[in-house]
Amino acid sequence: MVLATQAKTASNMKSTFHRTLLLTSLLGILAGCGSEPVDAMWPCRPDDSEDDIQPKNISLIPGGGIEVKDTANATLWRATDSAKTPYRLSMRVQTTNLALHAHGAGIAFGGSNVDGDKQAYTYFLVRGDGYFLVKTRDGDNTNDICPWTEHDAITKEDSDQKASNVLSVTVGKGETRFLVNGTEVYKHTSQQLHTIGKYGVRLVHDLSVRFDQIELTHGAESQEN
Known about the structure:
Elements: H1 2-33, H2 38-41, E1 44-46, E2 58-61, E3 65-69, E4 74-83, E5 87-95, E6 104-112, E7 120-127, E8 131-138, E9 141-150, E10 163-171, E11 175-180, E12 183-189, E13 197-203, E14 208-218
Antiparallel strand pairs: 1-4, 2-3, 3-14, 4-13, 5-10, 5-14, 6-7, 6-13, 7-8, 8-9, 10-11, 11-12
């Protein structure tokens, strides 16, 4: 009887040990799935190399989006993604403190050499007073494609200083269309823009912005709307 009890006790201890080991392994795997740092998934490049972007001010949100709070002028890129014409890129831009500055936030696309001195891309921003902007960057130089322009399609900030807009770019070989909340606000010859390459988000300093509902569609179907 004593031997049987000891054997049963040893078996239970062994079973408990195995369950504990399995649970520990599973927890390790689950932790590893979400442990990749934000800056590895969304590399951030401030306009001024001396600006210090604090990691605590950038956080991932469900669905692959990102939230950025109180940073310097910066562009953040999707680390592993790029777009090639034709395509449609869209995302929702939710701002929460636009009254601090008449500054914009929105889409960056067509990124090349984004880590180097010869960085190049196009960006499309909106701001809380109902204006939009389209510019290109080549190295340290930026060029107004469409200067700040008011449009009724843009949702202005409310009494809580918040605004939400869905920005889209439909990029074809001949023409690129810029849309806000499904309405075209501008179009331009694609050859005069940077359209092929990385994509991400762009914002001006001291804003708090959520970028989500990020969708990229390649092919002819991307040009239908």
